[in-house]
């Protein structure tokens, strides 16, 4: 029989539901070397967590994540809680010898991310694996775009344009949720959805961002208070308001290490746009363009074709030899949002079984965190900011004393908040 891989998941709201779907489905469509078992779901409220466990397919429900990560019958800890809990839970789980899958962004600060990477590096010496969940890179069309760039079909890349457009808080009466509070979310549109387009661009190019010049804006500075944070916006309960302490929109220019120029826009104020993650890459020999709101399609321009008939080609990415697609349906039978989470689970399980580092690693997550920090620094200074300079600043804040103690010190002091909010 296929050996079991017992999963504990921390958090059960939006991302928790998506990850649960992935763990349920992955072994039924993909031939995996280890069989995921949905062992225990952890949340802050006993009743809600038990109901979520029953609905989503988890065998047990628990409210003490510290006890869960220490259990001998748990192999993987899947972190789907808010950003301010990531570092504390991940460091504890890795120290306990558990493989860790952590939702993006890796942490709320560079210092926290560095602590997580330090712990992941120590754990890797014992065969423990850690991965950050940038799920969109597992969309087959976006993976195909990366393949085309890697094969040289675009020639030398000159430009990258990336947008992530949503509209779920355009209404100023939308309640204040944890995603709009810096101490809990780390940042607003920049970290929540901007992180995805930074990862998508770096993934497709196989390159990293070297410097940025950005600006950020908060359009609605006060919102009605909410009792419980449900989904994206929460539930308003009174006429009292609280401050919005994150950005509503972030825009920045970027220079890649390989010389390409990039422009990035992340906003939750694009009326009519529900989940428009868009990326276009232009090279000396061709271009690719992708929009998640048409997620099964990749547009490809081959600059080597006869100009009389050349144009963007619409590729429906559902053929068996397209990335991930062979395990699913016949050509033309499209995939959806949830399939990328299944692909993520498949890749993580296979990496664990093979004893190799998964991608994106915690190190990749840290590099992206440094880009986000550089954008914030640039917006404050109104000047270009080198990503490396931001990284150096974060390193000075993160490391106190030895590397081993510094990793743990960086995530201390948040017990009271994180312990009570893991069910988000």
UniProtKB/TrEMBL annotation:
Keywords: Oxidoreductase. The keyword Phosphoprotein does not apply. Residues 401-424 are annotated as: Disordered. Residues 415-424 have a biased composition (Polar residues). This is Gfo/Idh/MocA family oxidoreductase. Residues 145-288 form the GFO/IDH/MocA-like oxidoreductase domain. Transmembrane segments: none annotated. The keyword Oxidoreductase applies. It comes from the Bacteria. It holds the Pfam family GFO_IDH_MocA_C3. Residues 401-414 have a biased composition (Low complexity). Residues 5-123 form the Gfo/Idh/MocA-like oxidoreductase N-terminal domain.
